[in-house]
């Protein structure tokens, strides 16, 4: 299993875009079972009372232009346990 975690400051723009682009690429290759792909933030800036903000609307629109949905993705912060993935 290949495990990939994209990390950025808030997990509402760059890292979720990279996550969903790579997920689409892997799916197109029929390799979904070979990968675990996620994204997270270094900060809690986009997380309020334990609930992360959704992907930034302009980022959602750009993904949509390319036929990519980010579903219900919400910002999450990187934790120590993520290093064990």
How do you describe this structure in short?
The protein has 85 residues and is an alpha+beta fold.
Can you put this structure into words, describing what you see?
By secondary structure, the chain is an alpha+beta fold. It has a single domain, classed as Rossmann fold. It is built from two helices and four strands, in the order E-H-E-E-E-H. It has helices at 14-28, 57-65, and strands at 2-8, 35-41, 47-48, 51-52. It has a two-stranded parallel sheet. Strands 3-4 form a two-stranded antiparallel ribbon. Strand 1 (2-8), helix 1 (14-28) and strand 2 (35-41) form a beta-alpha-beta unit. The longest helix has 15 residues, at 14-28. The model has no long low-confidence stretch (mean pLDDT 95).
SSE order and pairing:
Layout: E1 2-8, H1 14-28, E2 35-41, E3 47-48, E4 51-52, H2 57-65
Q: Per DSSP, what share of the residues sits in E-state strands of 2 or more residues?
A: 15-25%
Provide mean pLDDT, rounded.
95
- Helix and strand sequence: EHEEEH
CATH level-3 fold name: Rossmann fold
What separation lies between the terminal Cα atoms?
A: 10 Å
């Amino acid at each position: 299993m290949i495990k990939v975690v994209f990390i950025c400051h808030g997990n509402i723009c760059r890292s979720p875009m990279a996550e969903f682009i790579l997920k689409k690429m892997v799916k197109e290759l029929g390799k979904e079972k070979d990968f675990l792909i996620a994204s997270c933030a270094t900060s809690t800036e986009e997380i309020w009372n334990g609930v992360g903000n959704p992907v930034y609307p302009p980022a959602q629109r750009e993904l949509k232009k390319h036929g990519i949905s980010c579903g219900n993705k919400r910002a999450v912060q990187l934790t120590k346990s993520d290093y064990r993935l």
